[in-house]
Amino acid sequence: MEIFSRLHLLLLLFSLGIVASSATVFTLENRCSYTIWPGTLCGNGIATLGDGGFELAPGASVQFPVPQTWSGRIWGRTGCNFDASGTGTCATGDCGGVLKCTGGGAPPVSLVEFTIAKSASDKDFYDVSLVDGYNVGLGVKAVGGTGDCQYAGCVADLNGKCPAELQVTESGTVVACKSACAAFNTPQFCCTADHSTPETCSPTQYSQLFKNACPSAYSYAYDDASSTCTCSGSDYLITFCPTS
What we know:
Elements: H1 6-15, E1 24-30, E2 37-42, E3 61-66, E4 71-77, E5 81-82, E6 88-89, E7 111-115, E8 123-129, E9 138-143, E10 152-154, E11 167-170, E12 173-177, H2 180-184, H3 187-190, H4 205-213, E13 229-232, E14 235-240
Parallel strand pairs: 1-14
Antiparallel strand pairs: 1-3, 2-4, 4-7, 5-6, 7-8, 8-13, 9-10, 9-14, 11-12
């Protein structure tokens, strides 16, 4: 995968007729000790980043220009094995057995979610979500923006703290931690049926475990107040396995 400099990205955007001064750039970096296969999914059909999925070696980084009003999610897949045609499987975050995702990652999976504003003066919205469980640490840092521009993420290794009833294991190693909804499928844990409103769906002992470990990440469906971040006119650094 070619690594673009900021200048090259802006020149590319200019050549495509996109105003360079308003360009948003995502930088994805892998600080894990193992390879990550990021998956990307656009929620509004504007642009697919990195063809939907690619390999990112330890210590590597890659940049993508992101159009205005882009909305979507990014996640890390682990333990993947793909053949020359891009067919294969991943231990976590798999998206239908292909390298280039056209759908979301299979839970449990840590997610970065973005909605980019229509102009640099408007607010972008972003978060790191553990509502679908956890498989790898994720962090989002706003770079050069204005406003609150909070850090969003989960630095802690939740696989090491995962209760036995939520664990996903492979060869005796915990590779992911399920959400309580996925593990038990009850309205109380899934915020459905008679627990489908913020007033009736409260944090549980499991979502609280996630929240205590990762205070700035979504821990359950109605965890908006402390988990939704905003920034204007920013680029974003998205880190797999961030450190404190």
